[in-house]
Amino acid sequence: MDQQDQQQLDAIARLHAERMELERDGYLLTSPGRTEQKALAVVALHIFLWGWFGTALAGAMLGTLMFPLIGTVLGFLSAGIGGIVPCILTSLLYAISRGRISPKLTMAWGGAMTGVGCFAQLMPWPILLGFGAVAGVFGATGARLSTRRSLKRYQFEEGLGMRSYHQFSILDLMLLTVWLALFLTALQIVTRIAMAPWSTTLACLAISLACALAIETVAQLSGRRQSRRST
User: Which keywords does this Swiss-Prot/TrEMBL entry list (predicted)?
Assistant: First the structure.
């Protein structure tokens, strides 16, 4: 065996070792599914579970800062229970849009809606709008970080977990209409249960969407800076 063959074998062994290390760490990129339906279902389920968990942890962290120990438990429970519906709706938004909307952004919105919703009944006092925004930032951050962690092993391709905006069709419009109907129905039910005026509900939605977009923008800018430094 000459030196060139030995170098090729060493390179193959090194690549195999790196692949095994990535697989042990859970960062080996794989496709979420062989068909679009399976890929969307797998990713939607993952982001719901992880986004919901991250939202609950964010609630516990915020509660700890406000009231240690007792606030931790109350924050975790309130965010965990209150985050079920928002996280389901936002994970469905990703699946129904067929990956056109970022799963990290959708779950950040779910976390923000949960955080702001915890203060929904207190919103008539303008001074508490700030607390709702802070809770929304915590929820959006927790949901986005946990969702980002859950998606590290997936490699998205066109038609398998993501789609381009220019391929929008009538089917996509029908699916988004169905999601909008579900969203408005859930919104009406929650508004009636909380006995809150629609002005308060719309204010909560606006604040939560602003929190999610702000966290997403900061994350995108941070990622661009890191990529520039690496190059």
Answer: Membrane, Transmembrane, Transmembrane helix
